[in-house]
């Protein structure tokens, strides 16, 4: 740990010293300041710094420097958010502020990704397709309805303008990469074209990854054979300055051999057989934007999408085949109307949304083909929302700008299935945010919100076989079955959250054109009616005389989802960024606590206190960068079982980037790096779940425009 810390500290110290030293000799230099813009925090694009809450926008430049293999690699740069599920890409799921699963909304270019299962992952997209990842932390139901209880993960894919410079009408990008920790090989190609008048463009990408078993820091090899083919096709048409029409198709295909439950460090065996896992997902989307220049009342977006996600698992040693398919159709319409009120400016964002999730389960070993725990069911959601953004100059004679951001959304939702009664409910989700900027460089903010998460059809209608266990009270140890039973009486999870924070945003701090931003907050959430799986097994199955062991509900051998917990979650998040022509330094800190308000037990997806730093120096006019990353975590003892305590850790990475900006080699990029350089055995997800060990990485790409 000490060696890693000293190495990273030396790199970061050199970065700051280099910047200050050169600043004195470069008074004429001005670095272009580009604030990261959040699209999803308010549905009205604004600088992320100005949002009265916490949102992190990870741009394409940072994504490229991370050189990610999976989406999990990107999340190290986000405080208060992490990726659970373990090292395998097939099991990775997002966690935000102690909530996961249905409590986190995932969007691909605005299209909902509703595939959820007990053990499979949720990120059916390759990092090579991404231009930005937004993580809005905190309840988002006032704009997005159900599923945004903990926050929103919104991924934006590449566009033609990302690959073409001014004056270019066609181009391509080809690349390849390798990482040693799982012998992963990647090759990708992107083509782009646009018309001379910039009215029509098209971009396409194809990426292939092939990986083997993962070498963990513990020295254990984790079976994880993967073959992934992902693609993107996107086109836009602008008949005039007022209209833009676009369409896209995102596809992800994955084939792997790993356990039925691929999460953690699970190894295939009895009760968790190895399977041939086939993932086939497609997201089709069409968008229309109408924004007439002569009207401040109309800036409308119409989005329609169809997402089809299917995961099929064929057991390696038997003939059993199971599958889950979730199809989501959605359409949303929103508009922004802007009003000049003299000393104040008002933007109203309002609209409506409908989406339908339909799930089909299959098991070739059941008489009717149904799959236990995967009901054939449908959920429909109808929502309408309105949000105001009122910015007042010199409020009550005070200096600066006061901004109010109230909003509310109404939702109605219905679920139905052949295995149980129909259910329906509705919810109202209000929110209000306020920020005050006495000067441009300082923001003080707070927000309060209510949010909800509707019970999923998996939770309401779960039925059929859950698992089988031997009856130890019987001489023959015959198997008995635990069945899922439906619970149509489930009510939505709900939360009330308040948050306060502040931030600083400086330019020209040490040298002309440099920038420094820091923003932090404290939040507290009261979450009621959390849904959990209740598993009941008769004591007699373990040799006790009563109650007797047997199959099904008659013997008390069943599982069902119930509203069980009222929780209190609170924490602190801080992130900072410094950038200049000669050096950069970014980092974050997060801590979270979660308690059952009735029992005092720890609840939620909790993490240790985590410090993250990424910094480096720039050479040759910025064409070359040498950097290092350092993650420090405290001992994790927020557990109810002492066996779940996890040790503190320090993990360091180093990397180098060469990217000529002029000359004959312009367009070439070379990335070299070593992740976990000390081969540390550390655990993020759970005690006993080791992360990947030392990982040597290389990537080469070539981009050319014409």
Outline the structure in words.
By secondary structure, the chain is mainly β. It has a single domain (2-705), classed as TonB-dependent receptor, beta-barrel domain (Maltoporin, Chain A, Beta Barrel). 6% of the residues lie in helices and 54% in strands. The chain is built from five helices and 36 strands. The strands form five sheets. It has a 22-stranded antiparallel barrel. Strand 26 (464-470) and strand 27 (479-484) form a beta hairpin. The longest helix has 22 residues, at 2-23. The two termini are 49 Å apart.
The CATH architecture can be given as Beta Barrel
- Estimate nothing, just give the exact number of structural domains: 1
Mean pLDDT: 93
CATH fold-level label: Maltoporin, Chain A
Shape type: globular
- Looking at this structure, what is the CATH superfamily? TonB-dependent receptor, beta-barrel domain
Count of helices?
A: 5
How far apart are the first and last residues' alpha carbons, in Å?
49 Å
User: Which runs of at least 5 residues are low in confidence (pLDDT < 50)?
Assistant: 1-34
Total strand segments: 36
Helical content class: under 10%
CATH class: Mainly Beta
What is the percentage of strand-forming residues? Answer: over 45%
> Major beta sheet, specifics?
22 strands, antiparallel, barrel
